[in-house]
Design goal:
By secondary structure, the protein is α/β, with parallel strands linked by helices. The protein is about 40% helix and about 15% strand. It is built from 15 helices and twelve strands. It has helices spanning about 15-30, 40-60, 70-90, 100-105, 110-115, 130-135, 160-170, 190, 230, 240-255, 260-275, 305-315, 335, 340-345, 360-380, and strands spanning about 5, 65-70, 95, 115-120, 140-145, 175, 195-200, 210-215, 280, 295-300, 315, 350. The chain has a seven-stranded mixed sheet, sandwiched between helices. A three-stranded antiparallel sheet has the order 9-10-12, covered by helices on one side. A two-stranded parallel ribbon has the order 1-11. Strand 6, helix 8 (about 190) and strand 7 (about 195-200) form a beta-alpha-beta unit. Helix 2 (about 40-60) runs parallel beside helix 10 (about 240-255). The longest helix has 22 residues, at about 360-380. The structure holds pyridoxal-5'-phosphate. The site of pyridoxal-5'-phosphate (PLP) has 15 residues, from helix 3.
Length: about 375
């Protein structure tokens, strides 16, 4: 039996280079960055060097990079910081795409409780359109929040055009870049967002580390208070081995030819659509509109949870949507926001490929998928 991992949007394998880098930092640079002796200064220098590397990869200033414990913390932080800024200016309205990750959506009740109004934008064919954002703006809009790329269907939003609309209106633009960073070119300055978030385990880096990138003139409030780390914005002893792993993982990941990943995922998608009846593509098929590795497909009349269990029994790892909602009986909020019914949403499978997948693996998945689907349909007759 082969083991085929096609759930890279949930997490990626840490590369050997990243593991070696982290071990090296654990062994040789383990002192507290806040210390006043040479060994601590070396650790603190390394931290700043990692900040510069990440800033260089994303085209921002090092002082705009704030390390966090991952994407969820960065998303929570960004939304809460924008809430405070909005309230200072007496603005309590925000525009949010309806298919954001729960790391964003689940902060919004805090805004509601404090009297905010939220305009949710449903995607059109999987995308948030700049015109939709423009139409939703009001005189009391405090911020706009649209993710760079969607984690379940892989669509890449026109963030450059959205940021221009926000900049013209003088409204900060928050962008969850967790699925995009590393996978497609993300340029903080050129794309024009005010806050961007990222998470290392999505690009071969370690778990539990990410970053919030914020325009340096944006007065963001602290996420965690305590010591003065991260410029008094995010207290707690810095996790240097993880940060070093993230900085290396990002620069290494940017070297990967994502065209090969896109080619492989298209082989898989076309194989499924051609050979298995009653299947539909949810992800757009154009390379420039979607992440290279993600493809979301609906299998009419089948339950994704049952299909995933059968795939698992032959060593294939895929997912029904975001990892955090796997096993939940609720249909995906992403697919519902696109206008699919609950039944359709429950029939969707996300395959997320990486440069580590091979053509043999794609062939293996296609063979088993065809057999399993036939089998499941026979049983349900
Ligand atoms: N945002 C998006 C779009 C994601 O896909 C994820 C994780 O799947 C997160 C945020 C949360 O990131 P983390 O797992 O680092 O907390």
């Amino acid at each position: 039996m082969m083991n085929v991992y096609m759930d890279n949007a949930a997490t990626t394998r840490q590369s050997d280079r990243v593991l070696r880098e982290m071990e090296n930092v654990y062994r040789n640079l383990w002192h507290n960055c806040s210390g006043a002796y040479d060994a601590a200064l070396r650790a603190s220098d390394e931290l700043e060097c990692c900040r510069q590397k990440i800033a260089h990869s994303l085209n921002c200033y090092p002082e705009e990079v704030h390390f966090t414990s991952g994407g969820t913390e960065a998303d929570n932080w960004g939304i809460r910081a924008l809430k405070r800024i909005g309230e200072k200016h007496n603005r309590r309205h925000c525009v949010v795409s309806a298919y954001e990750h729960h790391a964003v959506l689940n902060v919004l009740p805090e805004l509601k409780n404090d009297g905010w109004e939220i305009t949710y934008i449903n995607p059109v064919d999987g995308f948030i359109l700049p015109e939709q954002v423009k139409m939703a703006l009001r005189s009391d809009t405090a911020f706009v929040c649209v993710m760079y790329a969607n984690n379940e269907i892989g669509t890449v939003n026109p963030v450059g055009a959205i940021s221009k609309i926000c900049a013209t209106a003088g409204i900060p633009f928050f962008c969850d870049g967790v699925q995009a960073v590393g996978h497609i070119p993300v340029d903080f300055r050129k794309d024009g967002m005010d806050i961007l978030t990222l998470s290392a385990h999505k690009f071969n880096g370690p778990f539990g580390v990410g970053a919030l990138i914020a325009q340096k003139n944006l007065p963001i409030s602290p996420m965690i208070v305590g010591g003065g780390q991260e410029d008094n914005l995010r207290a707690g002893t810095e996790n240097l081995p993880a940060v070093a792993g993230m900085a290396l993982a990002l620069s290494d990941y940017l070297e990967i030819d994502q065209h090969d990943v896109f080619w492989l995922r298209n082989k898989l998608a076309s194989g499924i659509l051609f050979n298995i009846p009653d299947t539909h593509l949810v992800t757009p098929s154009c390379e420039y509109d979607s992440l290279p590795g993600i493809v979301n497909i609906m299998f009419d009349g089948l339950e994704s949870s049952a299909l995933l269990a059968r795939l698992n029994s032959v060593g294939i790892c895929a997912s029904a949507g975001s990892a955090c909602t796997t096993g939940s009986p609720k249909p995906s909020h992403v697919l519902l926001s696109m206008g699919y019914t609950a039944e359709q949403a429950r029939s969707a499978i996300r395959f997320s490929l990486s440069h580590e997948n091979t053509l043999d693996e794609v062939a293996y998945v296609l063979t088993h998928l065809e057999r399993i689907v036939k089998d499941m349909k026979k049983i349900s007759l």
